[in-house]
Amino acid sequence: MAERSFAKEVETLRVGAGEEFHGEGILAVTKALLQSGIAYVGGYQGAPISHLMDVLADAESLMSELDIHFEASASEASAAAMLAASVNYPLRGAVTWKSTVGTNVASDALANVASGGVTGGALVILGEDYGEGSSIMQERSHAFAMKSQMWLLDPRPNLTSIVNAVEQGFELSEASNTPVMLELRIRACHVYGSFTAKDNKRPEFRLRDAMENPVRDTNRIVLPPANYAHEHEKINKRWPAAIDYIKKNRLNEFLGAEEGEIGIVVQGGLYNTLIRALEIQGLSDSFGNAKVPIYVLNVTYPLVDDELVGFCADKRAVLLVEEGQPDYIEQAVNTILRKRDLQTRIVGKDVLPLAGEYTGEVMRRGIAEFMATYGGELAPGPRGHNVPAESESAPEELAEILPPRPAGFCTGCPERPIFSAMKMLEHEMGPFHVSCDIGCHLFSILPPFNIGNTTMGYGLGWAGASAFNTESDKRTISIMGDGGFWHNGLTSGVGNAVFNKNDNVLVIIDNNYAAATGGQDILSSRAERETKATGHSIQRAVAGVGVSWMRTVSSYDVELMRTTLRDALTTPIKGPKVIIAEGECMLNRQRREKPIKSKMVRDGKRVVRQRFGIDPDTCTGDHSCIRLSGCPSLTIQENPDPLREDPIAYVDNSCVGCGLCGEVAHAAVLCPSFYRADVIQNPNVRDRLSAKIHGAVIGWMQKRMERTRSRHAF
Fold it and tell me: CA Rg, the chain, in Å?
């Protein structure tokens, strides 16, 4: 099950021509695809477009009505290869994934389709995950667009612009026989708004039509001598056709003041932030009526030379707002202007940061510096209009008040016990090299576990330690999630290890779905799906490629996990060793079980919840349990014993009853302070009678203890 259902929202995708569509950015993208007459769509989940895949999955029945094929692809490479359907046939198709890591995975297929070109419109929707909110390396899609000469759209972050970009992206692709990339930052994916809808369209040419009337054109296949001609075709035919379409359809926009001695060129996706920064400086209102001419690049590649020259010709200075490094656009603009012998000063990374996300405050400072030098009458006063006084020491002051809060596992996460076991084994056997993968388990590299040396990519956990396949007194441990296993890990990790007779250890974390990306189903998911084949075991797949040493362990059994890891690290048996740690993602389990239990409570049915606590009289206050578990529900409180100063451990109300804290205390032989309590709602007669008996016995024992203490008091 995905972390969010769009079952209700997808019904709004049925609105017709002239009606107002209200909703979220990812819903608007889906509606735009339906309005464009696509024949197929696929992709791979990953923030910030995970929810786009969820919307598409929930809208599968609607797409089926329109003869649209939807596929939740096994990887980004699988999704990109779908675009082959548009090479020979007038089929419109779209694929989506998280960039730039997804584009890296898909690069082989993308390079081929970009070389041979397309007949039907081909659109790649990228979740441009950039900035401090990102979990990936800070790279941009722009480089890939330039390398393979795929056109790159970066629309203004409002629903009308996004929908137009999707529809015009297909038309641009068909006009230039080139795949088009459309990047959406995370805020654009989830911005809310409205636009005037059009009717959904069936594809004019269907997939069935292509299958029953196959077309073969060897000039579209990347083989000599055709591949040499492709490069000339890109430059002599496709590029001019793209420029012509962009100009005629005014995909880029000229906004703000009609004229002025200075101007601003901005990537479309940064337009809203720019307007807010200008508003703070008193140079615009919130509706975009700026006092400065603005050239909005809704198409960031290719650039239109004539438009840039025309915009810059009468200006002495232009601020170029380009987020990220290298400064591809700034370099290109300078080249274009100098070739036309224009000496307009292009100001970009001189006043804006070389790297990092361009937040509102970052952009405000850059604009203020640009205006102070080149703004003339528009230059603000000492602090500009409406600019709040800022404290340069604010971050330092906050750091003194707020302790660092590293990212960590969710409460009850089935992956946490694995690293608790590894931490205890490290204390016993010494440290070992741990190769990580992409997924929730990466949080193990942070406190309190501090486990993990490298990560090389999704499904590449074991491959990342393949160089260490040599004689040694120690073995390495690699980690891989079930999502990474099916994405790339079965071949690049397990198959590679079997082929090369790797003697190290792999832990595969099987939590029933691709948990890190939002709980989407995969081949080994337990749930039955009408349109998907699930229930395929990881154990059979691992055995099928030749692994003989394999163990399956419940991830919550800390003692057994430690024992199994020790066996894998010390066994005299040579060859790859695989441990499959099973434990359902607690977030998805809670999403599934909470509504059911809440309904049972409302219906007056008996419901039992397990909760864990700590006896304050037994707790020693050394907090070993916290260091070995790291569970967010484990915290501290003041010691009730006036003779002891150390705060004691305490389980707060966020506990989900997974039992890890007690398991860790038992396995590590810590103090026996943990207890389990069964919280019963709507108790039956037996429960009430049992509670009365227990209460009476405990009360009698407490009174007896108090009498004993009184006799020995002095």
Answer: 30
